[in-house]
Design a protein that fits this description.
2 domains; YaeB-like fold; Elongation Factor Tu (Ef-tu), domain 3; 3 helices; about 230 residues; mainly beta; six-stranded antiparallel beta barrel; four-stranded mixed β-sheet
Length: about 230
């Protein structure tokens, strides 16, 4: 039996996230986030997408390109547990895995034909950094992929805590119109590491071509600045 096999990147995603910081912890948490799947030249064949419009959701299988390492650990520290408790890597969705592969469920908004890029997919709810390589795309099948009775281990449900976001309209105008609601949704999910809670600390991340800086005090997040990169 072979020890492994080679894979090809079939596409890359174009998203508003320039770095890993700020990306929602799971796909689908911020539905306002819109991204584009751009296929590599070899796979820009419209026949490969024939029938995909009939599915409302898709699975994206992708590489944690920002977390590729030469070694791995059998245990990791999930942020959901405050970054203190260790759990088995296969009991988590940590990016630090023997094979750095991610799985995300996204909503298909449409298939468009780009003059230079060929057929592209517009999707919502992706939790991928801009430029992330995509290994495969598969349709989401509700009759087998949805299990309402499933148990969630140490992460049984989405966190109920959402922050109140204070951001002036003038700051939001720095961003493209289609990215403004998405930014507010990302901030409400609290992009800080779960174990950090310093009201005097200023955080920042790149989003939609701008640098967003903010602080958090209790349940309120205040956007301090939004500046063009």
């Amino acid at each position: 039996m072979a020890d492994g096999f080679s894979v090809n990147f079939i596409a890359h995603i174009r998203s508003d996230f320039q770095t890993k910081f700020g990306i929602p912890r799971q796909s689908g948490l911020v539905e306002e986030l819109e991204s584009t799947v751009v296929f590599t030249p070899e796979y820009r064949n419209p026949d490969a997408l024939r029938g995909i419009e009939g599915f409302s959701h898709l699975w994206l299988i992708w590489q944690f390109s920002g977390a590729v390492r030469s070694s791995w650990s059998p245990t990791v520290r999930p942020p959901r547990l405050g970054g203190n408790a260790r759990m088995g890597v296969f009991a988590t969705r940590s990016p630090f895995r023997p094979n750095p592969i991610g799985l995300s469920c996204v909503r298909l908004l449409g298939v468009e034909e780009d003059r230079e890029l060929g057929p592209v997919l517009r999707v919502a709810g992706a939790d991928l950094m801009d430029g992330t390589p995509i290994l495969d795309i598969k349709p989401y099948l509700p009759y087998v992929d949805a299990h309402p009775e499933a148990t969630g281990g140490f992460a049984p449900a989405a966190p109920e805590r959402r922050l109140t976001v204070d951001c002036s309209p003038a700051m939001l105008e720095i961003l493209p119109v289609e990215s403004r609601a998405a930014l507010l949704g990302v901030l409400a999910e609290d992009p800080r590491p779960a174990y950090q809670d310093d009201p005097d600390r200023v955080y920042g991340f790149g989003f939609a071509g701008a640098e967003v800086r903010f602080s958090v005090d209790g349940e309120r997040l205040t956007v301090l600045s939004v500046t063009k990169n």
